[in-house]
Amino acid sequence: MQFLEEISSEGLEIARNITKEGPICDHCLGRQFAQISHGLSNEQRGMILKAALRASGEALGEGTCWVCNGLFEHLEYWISTALEKLTEYEFNSFLVGTKVSGLLLQNEELLWEIAGALYAEPLKAELNREVGKRLEHETGKRVEFETPDIVVILNLWTETVELQIKPVFIYGRYLKLTRGISQTRWFCRECGGKGCERCNFTGMMYPESVEGLISGPLLEEFNGEDLVLHGCGREDIDARMLGSGRPFVVEIKEPKRRQVDLQRAAEQVNEANRGKVEVRELQYVGREMVAKLKDAQMDKLYRVEVEFRSPVRETDLKKALDRLNGALIEQQTPTRVLHRRADLVRNRNVYSVQLVSFDGKQAALQLTCRSNAFFKELISGDEGRTRPSLSALLGTPAEVRVLDVLDVKVGIHGEDAADREDVC
Questions:
Q1: Reported confidence tier of residue 1, pLDDT bands at 50, 70, 90
Q2: Same fold for the domain at 2-165 and the one at 168-295?
Q3: Do 416 and 289 contact (CB within 8 A), yes or no?
């Protein structure tokens, strides 16, 4: 037949030398010639080679394959174990991978010393394909090489099947309606999350976070193991996030369910956190949205209540605000965040400042500025680390007493979920 014609007498002699090392299964013999002839499985190649060797009078040994140690004789174990694990998960695509044990690797290297590896296929490639074909047939799901929902790992060291589950990513906006809530879970700096007197043995710097509050309902909906919130910037803990909300992506790890009604999920989150946190506009996105969100340029609209140490005149205040309106400011990393940020000087844009109300020692302002501007320091000056500042322009200390974020406008180009400038 064509395969034997293509393999030539030299190839048949290589096959003869391999069989002299001991019993070998059809899979392991055939995969040494996997690149020769198309339309055949490696098992079929091995059967043809053995038949040719027997026809030439060669006596072939019987018993457990000395290369794979009987691995391909026990494919049903790996298939049934994988199917049992997969029944817990909702998925559309999968891929099979193998962790090969040291003994099998040594056998493979010895085999290649005898036969060469010019036309060979590695053991794990053969195993991945054979198990993958059966799983595809049994589950009706497709093999996906780029981004499968699940990777089935055949661990030959431990003789177990492991699953790697692709996270689910959901984009949306959140409103934070109560002060004193951090954006993400913040482990106590003293104990690192173990629990101590400082954190009242909770392990957290703050008892509640947006991430923690929305995780319960979403994890229940997706039957996931954990949730990570990726925010498009963050507001201070004592600030509310109002208006249209802040863009975010949640990453749900090891979800057993992948297709959930997101409108219902949002309702579950909002009902559980009424008066604290609300989520909107939930939609499925890919992993790449996390990076797009982190790199996005933002314009933020604030409303603040400012208190002056000494009374100021309204005319002086308006002049100072005119100086800040449209200004390019220099901000050295504020002292309050030096513990977690590099001490650098950054230029930030203040697009507009409006006076809402004023009574001599207090004023309400509405301000729009570029992303990453530290607004509290724009008011206080942070001992000269922000220039210019409202305090310096007025000649009296000023401090933010109440801060609300009213809007976060974001430009993400090439985003999957929508194609508009204010995509978030």
A1: low
A2: no
A3: yes
Angle, CA 336 vertex, CA 330 and CA 340 arms, to 5°:
95
In the predicted model, is pLDDT for residue 383 greater than 50?
yes
Distance CA 120, CA 135 (A): 24
Place of tokens 């098992």: 43
Cα four-point dihedral sign 295, 300, 306, 311: positive
For residues 217 and 270, give the distance between their C-alpha atoms in angstroms, rounded to a whole number. 9
From CA 299, how far away is CA 80, in angstroms rounded? 54
Q: Which pLDDT tens digit goes with each residue over 4-18?
A: 878 888 888 889 999
Q: How many CB atoms lie within 10 A of CB 298?
A: 21
What are the residue ranges spanned by the domains of the chain? 2-165, 168-295, 297-411
Question: What CA–CA distance (Å, rounded) separates 29 from 12?
Answer: 11
**Third-level CATH fold of 297-411:** Alpha-Beta Plaits (3.30.70)
Give the CATH fold of the 2-165 domain. THUMP fold (3.30.2300)
Q: Which has the higher per-residue pLDDT, 235 or 174?
A: 174
pLDDT grade, residue 234 (50/70/90)?
confident
On whether the CB atoms of residues 321 and 355 are closer than 8 A, the answer is yes
Q: How many CB atoms lie within 10 A of CB 211?
A: 22
Residues with a catalytic annotation lie at 236
The pTM score is 0.84
* Tokens at 265, concatenated: 């999920």
What's the first-to-final CA gap in the chain, in angstroms?
Answer: 63
On the 0-12 / 13-18 / 19+ scale of CB atoms within 10 A, 405 is: buried
Q: pLDDT at position 213, please? A: 96
Rounded (10°) CA dihedral 18, 23, 27, 32: -10
State the Cα–Cα distance between residues 17 and 230, nearest whole angstrom: 59
What's the pLDDT band for 152 if we cut at 50, 70, 90? very high
Among 30-44, 190-204, 266-280, the minimum mean pLDDT is found in 190-204
Class of domain 168-295: alpha beta
Kindly write down the DSSP assignment for every residue of 196-233, as one continuous string. -TTTTTSSBSSS-BHHHHHHHHHHHHHT-SEEEEEESS
